[in-house]
Amino acid sequence: MKKTIKELLQTAPESQSVEVQGWVKTNRDSGSLSFIEVTDGSCLAGIQVIAESELENYATDVKHLSTGSSVHISGLLVKSPTKGQDVEVRAEKITLLGTADPETYPLQKKRHSFEFLRSITHLRSRTNALGAVVRVRSELSCTIHRFFKERGFFQVHTPVITTSDCEGAGEMFTVTSLEPGKFAKDDPFAGDFFGRRAGLTVSGQLQAEIYALSHGRVYTFGPTFRAENSNTSRHLAEFWMLEPEMAFCDLDCNAAVAEDLIRDLAAGVLARCADDLDLFNRFVSKGLVRKLETVRDTSFVKMTYSEAVDELLRAEEKFEFPVEWGIDLQAEHERFLCEKLAGRPVIVTGYPKEIKPFYMRMDDNGKTVAAMDVLVPGIGELVGGSQREERLELLTDRMEQAGLDLDEYRWYLDLRRFGSVPHSGFGLGFERLVQFVTGMANIRDVIPFPRTPGSAQC
Ligand code: 4AD
Ligand code: MG
């Protein structure tokens, strides 16, 4: 493979022959000379190419190279005499690979709104900001795998199609191969592909628990789907979730892993994505780098749900949703706690059992469960997790109260019948993490192909 522009920019300019492959960002023609900036997505910066009018296709192609056209250039990498770049390429041959008609190519050199870019999902990754999101997202994903590998975790691939609604919130998309009108009245899915109702997973947790009880430390990281009709800047119908699950680990241990991970991720992007973060810091979210440094360098604040409610009641803030013990915290409450009260991420534990799913471990008070949410500035809930109920009888009671069919979840109860141990885990919404790290306001701009109510492009 030829060198990327990132690699070329790091190469010592000893007048060596190089090849540049990429897309024209800008082309300034000064009559006898063209200054062409070429990018290839490998880094934020482009490389400057100097083309002289002696080139054989100067008048026919080079002079007219327009934004977005693709080129192959061979030439000499030299030290740049002018400010703005360390090295540049003196072109010896320029081949125009593909044109991009300036009349119709939507990405001319000017700032486009993220909203407009959403209408061209197939081209937006060529812009500076959306291109930077792609690199930061990839870096975060690599860091996650490295983090867990270093701590002895195994990655488990949990199913996309499942018959268990983990969160019990009725937000599963149904998967069917039946034609409309072919559903039987009494048992609609009996004649369907799986012979029973199946859907797209809302969480890989229940399956991850199986493997935590054989391999100790595992994680699953994949797409999850929720048919919730939330048209907000932090909800998607298809999003990626990271879910570690750990045997012999209580709620404190769980919270410590979540905190270590988030701080490690902040440190990782600060160290390895400096140019991209600088772009976000200047044009998208002022103070972003400072915020990430705080996350990297300071420990999170911990409080119980009851303490959080007290703080919210004491606050002089006007909330849209009234606060009382028992409510599910809304984004405005979560953001108040971490942005105004703590000024850094907050871990809230011990939520009322009524607002949390059946699998969370009951606290001794009989009112709260061993749940934890990690709230971060600018986002609110980034992580939701818990210690799981490992006691067969208590779990069975909770499942009955939740109206679950115990026969369908027999396998889950078996994990408590045979060698049950204390265990816990959490789910980190990957797009919310990318939002947090880049400061991008809308979750639709941090996933390549957003799926939201009424919208699915490509
Ligand atoms: O809090 P949630 O619903 O937790 C679970 O699904 C657990 N089974 C996880 C576990 O313990 N293994 O979701 C976890 C995280 C949330 O904190 C949020 O960051 C993200 O997933 N999330 C969403 N992200 C984007 N769009 C949505 N519709 C989301 N719903 C949840
Ligand atoms: Mg949650």
Brief summary:
This protein is an alpha+beta fold. Helices cover 29% and strands 25% of the residues.
Tell me the fraction of residues in β-strands, as a range: 25-35%
Question: In the CATH hierarchy, what is the architecture of the largest domain at level 2?
Answer: 2-Layer Sandwich
Output the CATH homologous superfamily of the largest domain: Bira Bifunctional Protein, Domain 2
Low-confidence stretches: none
Determine the structural class based on helices, strands and strand pairing: alpha+beta
Mean pLDDT: 96
CATH class of the largest domain: Alpha Beta
| Total strand segments | 18
From N to C, what is the helix and strand string?
A: HEEEEEHHEEEEHEEHHHEHHEEEHHEHEE
Tell me, what's the shape?
elongated
Strand adjacency order, main sheet: 6-10-11-16-15-14-13-12
Number of helices: 12
CATH fold name of the largest domain: BirA Bifunctional Protein, domain 2
How many separate structural domains?
A: 2
